[in-house]
Amino acid sequence: MAKAPATATESKTETDSRPRGFDYAALPGIADEMLGTDGNVRPVWRHLLDAISRMSERELHERFARTDRYLRDAGVFYRDYGKGSSERNWPISHIPVLIDEKEWATLSEGLTQRANLLEEIVADFYGANRLVKEGHIPPALVASNPEYLRPMVGIKPASGHYLHFCSFEIGRGPDGNWWVLADRTQAPSGAGFALENRVATTRAFSDIYAETHVHRLASFFGAFRDTLQSHRQHPDDRIAVLTPGPANETYFEHAYIARYLGFMLLEGEDLTVVNGRVMVRTVAGLKPVGVLWRRLDASYADPLELNQQSHIGTPGMVQALRNEALTIVNALGTGILETRALLAFMPGVCRHLLGEDLKLPSIATWWCGQASERQHVAGNIERMVIGPAYSRLPFFDDNGQSVLGSSLRETAKESISDWLAADGHRLVGQEVVTLSTTPAYVDNQLVPRPMSLRVFAARTQDGWQIMPGGFARIGSSHDVSAIAMQSGGSAADVWIVSEKPVERTTLLPAEESFTRNMPGSLPSRAADNLFWLGRYIERSEGALRILRAWHGRYAESADPKQPLLAHVVRYLETLDIEMSDAVPASLLNNINSALYSASNIRDRFSPDGWLALNDLAKTARRFHAKVAPGDDATHAMTILLRKLAGFAGLVHENMYRFTGWRFLSIGRYLERGLHMTRLLGHMTGPDAPDGAYDMLLEIGDSVMTHRRRYNVSTAGLTVTDLLALDPLNPRSILFQLNEIRTEVEQLPNAFVNGQMSPFYREAMRLHSGLAVMTPEGMNTAIYRQLEKDLEHLSDVLARTYLG
After folding, report:
1. What is the phi-psi region of residue 275: left when phi exceeds 0, alpha when psi lies from -120 to 50, beta otherwise?
2. CA distances (Å), 534 to each of 110, 614, 638, 668, 670, in order?
3. Are 162 and 119 in contact (CB under 8 A)?
4. What are 334-375's pLDDT values in tens digits?
């Protein structure tokens, strides 16, 4: 069996091939990736290093700041489970990793062979199972494997293949040889992050990138998109990315890939199985789904036949696969190929199935369920890592489940044989790998850091295609275990460099003619989140306007018991808005709820809108802890209103006017109508204190309009007319109902067999009833009934479209 390198080579000495002008005195050690086996700087690195050598420290900081700013503005995040499942900025390592295209061609050849081998293995596991019968793979590694899904045995994929998209964790030893550290076949992540790494890194080195013949990534994604489209069995089949949801660590990537390729982003609850076909619930009814790019673990996909505890799957999905009515990327059950112990048997299985040796060897691995292997591991414990056999992670990613033999005490080493004898079938030994290093910019200097590469393979209509790049995981220290993202590692772009100019590809069609495709069907869950996003935003604005008016008057009198202020406090209490803080917690809850709704539809949300909403939430949290009642709070409310208006303006100006826009707008109109209805019902009653009408106009942002429209001072009838019944005032109740009616007319199934839908009928009834009212007829009872009717309208919308 081929062995991975056990120790690092000594640092190379300086050579004449170093780029002219480069300050090697700033390097504590020269990164292995920069040097060839002859000790000279690899030609592929020279242009970049030479360019960096001419830059001042300030210029480098400015370039890297552009990268960081882009990632922040794009909202790229990674969920860190070690810090309360918090979102943190994508950890970019600014210096790309450069690989010559000739070397990459050799790597690609080895990875293509490996992808074909994995396809053969998994097809056998769920088919004839001869590898186990003939003794090439121990039965325990399949039969006892939690990733072996027995309901999938005998189910042939509709596409004819089990694997469609794979990734490989590979590393280079200091001697220059590459090794496969892990195979990723369950739901490989990182391709979207690789795209963002490329965009972000070129922000820092746009000039160098333009001068360097770096292979582009778009053709890889374009070929895979075309292949998925070819798997549709019916013209009306949808293609979707199936995500576990926003709580997943790589949810940003799911949304990004869906948006980039033009696919729907769905969760398990969006889907249902009808007559053996998978359907997505949309506001226009059930629509067929033909291809799912799965980003959740297979056992969670169907609680009916797989993991019954799953809350994120779709009952009946396995049956749809039996019917060959659905293609899943990758097929359910392919996660078994990630089993760490299988690496020990890959060389022999490759010779058996393909008749050739592995072109790209795996890290040296021994399954301890066999006596000779146990003895070898125990006898060489100093250069071994012992870990769980069924783990799907390389040792530096497994959160400390593996044990480094050299770190054990002598007494522990003496008992290794007993441990392996008792639990050997659950353990593997792997030879310690010292990974090569690549330059990273740390503390104002280039330093060598250990590196592994994540490389992606997509099955296309012409066979496997290897992404010309991927991303590198860079350690935060010289310890290999620090490569993992959850352990503080970072990610770097990978440039595959050619000696000649490369084709500049794009996902846009080359033809001069085009077809204007209408946006796809809107899933009911997305419509629900858009509707409530609109409501929470408008609810927050209404609360801000009331609080600003209250604090402005409090600043003048400093007496919260003043009749008008006390009257408003009683109203706020009915809305569960407490006045113990100048910026109430309930206001923060509404803003956070808006942020949560937006997070569920990241694929339909512009980066600018997302940034504006995040900025609003951060500012509100800051004010909550610091702002005092009175003038300070009034100023704070004004700032929050401006930020909220900025978000609303971005959405209004940028969002395409299709079904999603209509649900967002209906949510805003309905909530604004409710806000004004409740406020008028409370502030225009017989017990309304002095100043109530003026305060109403201020809250309704209609002071100037009232002065122009009426030649009298503020009065109950004029305020009622303007804020309740004026169809031209964008703050009036009637205006909201008129806009809702207009939007409803454009919704799917507004008319069914010539009849209005229940929601359309209710919206028309409400609008007509208020349109014939006069200011004199409006009273507290009317407002209360109107409030109930508006809440009922929301319920009817949910039953009609969101169920």
Report:
1. left
2. 52, 15, 20, 4, 9
3. yes
4. 999 999 999 999 999 999 999 999 999 999 999 999 999 999
